[in-house]
C-alpha cells in the first residue's frame, strides 16, 4: 500500500496457491494474476469472487477456451498423467505477464511482486534441464513425504538421487527464465531505473539430516537462501556476507525509495534494517508450530503430537561470538539448546562443546531474542486453521 499511496501502479503475480486471490492476497494491488489458473488477471482488487454470476460465467468461458487450447491440453495432460506436478506453465505465464506490464505501462511507476513455484516440491523441470538420469526417472514413484515422516516407508538412494537432480534442474530452469527476463529488460533500457530483487522464502532438504522438502527442519539447507539485488545506483558493489533477514527488504525499500525512517529499526533481530547502509548484528528464524504434524498423524495414529520430536517448535539465532566468528544457537522445544560454529561447520554436524558459563550465555541470548519477538519458549503453541485453509494445505501436500 505504501507504493500505491505514492503514485505507483501495483501488480501482484503469484503461482503459489496459498499466496493467491483465493486467500485474499490480491487486496491492495491494482492488478493481480494467479498464473496457476486459466483465468485472466483481475483488476482493481476484484479477486476471484465466485458468488457473482457474471464472474462464474466469464471464468467458465475462459476455462473452456483454455482447456481447448494447446497450453490447456498440455497442462491437463501433465496434471492427469505426469509423474509430478508441474510449475513450468505458471512460471512461463508469470514471466510473460511481467513483460506485458513493462511494455504496456511505459512511463508509469510500477511495483511488481512475482512469486513463482519452479524450485519447489514436487520437482518437474523441462527434461533438458535434468542431467544424469536414465531409467530411474521413469521407474520411481514419487514418495509420500509425510508418509516417510510417519514411518510408513523409506526413501531409497535412487529416489533421493532423482529428486536431487530434478531439484537442481528446477533451479537451473528458474535461473534461465529470470536471466532471460533481465536480459529482455536490459535490452529495452528498463533496468536503467528499476530495482530488481531475487530471493526465496526457503530452501529444500533432499536427504540431508534425514529430512526431505521443508517441513520440520531449520537447518541451513532451508534457512540460507539466495538474495540478489540489482540497483542502478549501486552497480559494482559485489557480494556481501552480512547477516540478512527477508523483512530487511521492506526497510531497505522504504528508505531507498521514499526516504522513510521506521522508528522500530534496529539490528537485534526484531525489525528490519537498510541492507545498503546498515549491518545486522543478529538474525533469527522461527518455526512457531509445525502444522504438517497433523498430516503425519493422519498417516500414523500411533504418533503422539505432545511427545514426537516432529512437533518441536524451533528458534534459531545467528550471531557473532566474542571472537568475531558466526555461530548459530538453536533452541528446540524437545531438545533444548545446541550451538554450531557456522564458519567451520556450515552443515551443522558437530555441536560445540560448551562450558556451563558459555552455555548460560547462549541461553540468555536466545531468551532475550524470544522475549523481543514474542516467541513463547514455554507451553506448546497452537494455531487454529480454517477448513478452507486445510484444504489448500492438503492440495499443496502439506497435510
Features:
single chain; 399 residues; four-stranded mixed β-sheet; four-stranded antiparallel β-sheet; globular
Largest sheet features? 4 strands, mixed
Strand content: 5-15%
Radius of gyration: 23 Å
Number of helices: 12
Please give the number of β-strands.
12
What does this structure look like?
It is globular and about 60 Å long. It has 399 residues and is α+β, with helices and mostly antiparallel strands. Helix 4 (88-104) packs parallel to helix 7. 35% of the residues lie in helices and 14% in strands. It is built from twelve helices and twelve strands. It has a domain at 281-399.
Layout of secondary structure:
Blueprint: H1 2-5, E1 9-14, E2 31-33, E3 42-43, H2 53-68, H3 70-81, H4 88-104, E4 110-115, H5 135-139, H6 145-149, H7 157-187, E5 196-199, E6 205-206, E7 212-213, H8 220-223, E8 227-230, H9 248-258, E9 282-287, H10 293-299, E10 314-320, E11 326-332, E12 336-341, H11 356-372, H12 387-395
Helix pairs in contact: 2-3, 4-7
What's this, in brief?
This protein has 399 residues and is of the alpha+beta class. It is built from 12 helices and 12 strands. The chain has helices at 2-5, 53-68, 70-81, 88-104, 135-139, 145-149, 157-187, 220-223, 248-258, 293-299, 356-372, 387-395, and strands spanning 9-14, 31-33, 42-43, 110-115, 196-199, 205-206, 212-213, 227-230, 282-287, 314-320, 326-332, 336-341.
